[in-house]
Specification:
- The protein is built from four helices and no strands.
- The chain is mainly α.
- The chain has two domains: 30 residues; 29 residues, no CATH class.
- Helix 1 packs across helix 2.
- The termini are far apart.
- One of its GO terms (molecular function) is DNA binding.
Length: 84
């Protein structure tokens, strides 16, 4: 396994990293490993629009049915809820 030394880490980054590691119950080293792994290795989340398009494709719904369903949405502007 490789080792990494980071020089010149700003004080505020060091403090934030230590605090985050403590909140998660991990060592600072383990926290850095996880952060790097999540940033570089794990797949990123799919944007909402792409996820919804994939669901439409997988459902087998036709383009005409999709157009009909999209046309049935209420597109009127709504007033925000009042809590008074």
């Amino acid at each position: 396994m490789a080792q990494l030394t980071i020089r010149g880490l700003p004080e505020e980054v060091d403090r934030a990293l230590r605090a985050q590691a403590a909140r998660h119950g991990r060592s600072m080293e383990a926290e850095v490993r996880l952060i790097l792994r999540q940033a570089l290795i794990l797949p990123t989340e799919t944007p909402m629009g792409e996820a919804m398009a994939a669901i439409w494709r997988q459902s087998g719904i036709t383009d005409e049915e999709q157009a009909f369903l999209e046309g049935t949405r209420d597109r009127r502007a709504h007033e925000p809820m009042s809590f008074e």
